[in-house]
Amino acid sequence: MSDFFELAAKRQSCRSYDPAQRPTKEQLTACIRAAQLAPSACNSQPWHFTVVNDPVTSPAVAEATRLYGLNKFTAACPAYIVICEQPARLMARVANMVTQQHYAPMDIGIATAHLCFAAAEQGLSTCIMGCFDEARLRELLPLPEKGKVKLVLAVGFAADDPLREKKRKELDEICTYIGE
User: Fold this and answer.
1) What CATH number corresponds to the domain at position 66?
2) Number of compact structural domains in the chain
3) What pTM was computed for the model?
């Protein structure tokens, strides 16, 4: 396993995939297993992952992500993971106390991060997309009836995607320390 901080530094959103290289089922399953281990409120695991790694279906999913002229890079991406929010089953006493908080989106974000890090650890590249035609995805794929498509993750091998400089806010802009 890589050093986690190295892994975090090398993970980036890929926008240049090698269409000739398709991830294996084992690699994609390893990514799902990592997401499965992500923490969630009351262990509710409010997610469902639909893995698309098919030469016929993948291009159709790619097309469903290209709204408003966005995500043109998906034309070359061989695989996708469609992430749907599922009803969260919180323990009754907890649900009654925290009615103002909706945990599922946070839980899905954590699971997606686990998935992306697992992909990077295996030499795969990813890009998280929030722009897509949900109705078209539902026509194409056997998605769960309940819940909403939250994210589509492009997964494949980078064609030419050198590590870019990460432009991030300064630490003092995003963090306040109290104490030492």
Assistant:
1) 3.40.109.10
2) 1
3) 0.92
